[in-house]
Design goal:
The protein is an alpha/beta fold. About 30% of the residues lie in helices and about 25% in strands. It contains 15 helices and 25 strands. A hairpin with a 5-residue loop joins β19 and β20. The longest helix is centred in the first third of the chain and has 17 residues. The chain is globular and about 65 Å long. Bound molecules: malonyl-coenzyme A (MLC) and adenosine monophosphate. The site of adenosine monophosphate has 18 residues, from β13, β19 and β20.
Length: about 500
């Protein structure tokens, strides 16, 4: 039986030129010809630490070439790679440690003490460090580790990664993505977006989510392309590197920020072949303004943690603003009513999907997994959509209570739970309202207990230790009561209408 380990697929595409650059990063360059040896050393170290196939490795580190090598090394030993947003607080990370029960955690040096303390409590055997320069105890130990030349055999359904995504209950769920989920999606995107010889990817996304880790890096790896690997999104670095790049992927905020920069010009985009946007809705006005300035129609696609990429505007055909294009090859999609029955074209319903990209289920949550699938195997995305006669899809809203800020998901329930714990708070509601930079701004409406003198500062200082910065409200309002319908349910739509202009 052939080996479905996605590392084998990448390896088969490495360019034969020994000088071909994979990552051009702030500390230098990593060549394709170095990957096998470097990941071999890291894989040797992982094995030395006792990491076996199926063991979980949690990684919460800054973006670096070494972090990418660590990801590839985990694939090689068939460990389950679990990347975490660097914005998560110690308390949030502790939850993931308890849930995933990892064999190893790799963290930033500044977080080491706290993580070790929690690791002892939770019986996690190993903690190592990696900083943004690629240094730390992981790199030190790697230097003397025995080299591992093998790539573990995997079947199509073996889990490669777990990516956590929060839920409407506020409790994060680990989406298990198999080697085949990842490789089928990568192959489809590589072909659908016409990757070609000489393509250079400008990479400014974080590498702890689907967009930056899988969509961007996997396409480049399959193409043997050079990646200009920026540590984060920064306008000066983007402007400097666009003329040497051919492809860029970004969340809508990237494009909004470029448009606000008076130095951003058509000339900078002369070498570019493709701008891609996703992770949040791209406003039609951003699409049009970007076309005016750059001469490029941004290609918008739609996806999610549980399924990688699902739909895309066409490469050659019309890229229509406010639509996310067609289901990708091998992906079936239907717009359905709340029972899963397909509805008339043009009507609004819930988007349901099926295909080799759809995940294996939530880690240790079989009931939760079952709830999100129909009997015929379709996954319920929770996004409201329409499909036209040609099969083109538009995302028109969300059935799930979710705010997307700068491409990061914020689950209101999680923030509300944290706020409601505060002394003096009776209840709270979190809503997303239009924000010029982040798309949606996280906004809190709080009802105090009678006689409480709690202030905005009290709330913010409490949340600082509790939840990641991007989940914390940009604005807080105190009301006497929340609007409710006759069933007693909070009317978030009414709140969104009331506060819709606060960031304008
Ligand atoms: C940063 N901040 C945010 C934020 N990002 N607040 C809300 N939402 C965000 N997304 C905070 C900072 O901590 C800082 O707080 C303040 O806002 C200003 O920071 P900044 O320097 O202006 O922001 P910056 O660091 O430039 O980050 C903005 C960003 C970044 C848009 C570049 O958020 C980003 O890279 N987003 C990409 C997310 C992503 O990859 N999503 C893909 C998910 S996968 P303070 O207090 O310090 O001032 C997925 C599936 C799919 O969804 O379809 O792709
Ligand atoms: P995540 O769980 O972080 O993977 O976020 C996935 C969610 O992002 C989807 O369910 C959508 O709600 C949203 N999303 C991703 N791409 C788009 C897009 N192009 N347009 C609208 N929403 C999007």
């Amino acid at each position: 039986m052939s080996n479905s380990n996605i590392y084998e697929l990448f390896y088969s595409k490495f360019p034969s030129d020994p000088e071909a650059v994979f990552l051009e990063h702030e500390q230098g360059s990593l060549l394709y010809s170095q990957i096998e040896n470097e990941t071999g050393k890291l894989a040797g170290l992982l094995k030395q630490l006792g990491v076996k196939k199926g063991d979980r490795v949690i990684v919460q580190v800054d973006k670096s070439a070494e972090a990418v090598l660590l990801y590839l090394a985990c694939l090689r030993v068939a460990a389950i790679f679990i990347p975490l947003n660097t914005a998560y607080t110690a308390e949030e990370v502790k939850y993931f440690m308890g849930d995933a029960n990892p064999h190893l955690i790799v963290c930033r040096p500044q977080d080491y003490e706290t993580i070790v303390k929690n690791a002892k409590e939770l019986n996690v055997p190993h903690v190592m460090t990696l900083d943004e320069q690629g240094c730390g105890s992981l790199a030190d130990a790697k230097a003397s580790a025995p080299i591992n030349t093998n790539t573990e055999h995997c079947s199509v359904s073996d889990t490669a990664c777990i990516l956590y995504t929060s839920g409407t209950t506020g409790r994060p769920k680990g989406a298990m993505l198999s080697h085949d989920n990842l490789s089928s999606n990568a192959k489809v995107l590589h072909s659908y977006w016409h990757w070609e010889a000489g393509d250079v990817l400008l990479h400014a996304l974080p590498i702890f989510h689907v967009h930056g880790l899988f969509v961007a890096l996997h396409c480049a790896l399959l193409n043997g392309s050079k990646v200009i690997f920026l540590s984060k999104f920064s306008l000066p670095a983007i402007k400097e590197n666009l003329p040497r790049s051919t492809v860029m992927m970004g969340v809508p905020t990237f494009y909004v920020r470029l448009l606000e920069d008076p130095e951003f010009t058509t000339d900078m985009c002369n070498n570019m072949r493709l701008f891609i946007a996703g992770s949040a809705p791209l406003l039609a006005e951003t699409f049009k303004a970007f076309e005016n300035v750059s001469g490029h129609k941004i290609l918008e696609r739609y996806g999610m943690t549980e399924a990688g990429m699902i739909t895309s505007n066409p490469y050659d055909g019309d890229r229509i603003p406010s639509t996310v294009g067609f289901p990708l090859p091998e992906v079936s999609a239907r717009v359905a009513d709340d029972k899963g029955n397909e509805i008339e074209r043009g009507e609004v319903g819930i988007l349901e999907i099926k295909g080799p990209n759809v995940f294996q289920g939530y880690w240790c949550m079989p009931e939760k997994t079952a709830e999100e699938f129909r009997d015929d195997g379709f996954f319920i995305t929770g996004d409201m959509a329409t499909m036209d006669q040609e099969g083109r899809i538009s995302i028109v809203g969300r059935a799930k209570d979710l705010v997307i800020s700068g491409g990061y998901n914020v689950y209101p329930k999680e923030v509300e739970n944290a706020i409601d714990e505060i002394d003096g708070v009776k209840e709270s509601a979190i809503i997303g309202v239009p924000h010029p930079d982040f798309g949606e701004g996280v906004t809190a409406i709080i009802i105090k207990e009678s006689h409480s003198d709690i202030t905005e500062e009290n709330v913010m200082s409490y949340l600082k230790e509790k939840i990641a910065r991007f989940k914390q409200p940009n604005k807080i309002f105190f009301l006497d009561e929340l609007p409710r319908n006759t069933m007693g349910k909070i009317q978030k739509k009414a709140l969104r209408d009331t506060y819709r202009d606060i960031y304008q």
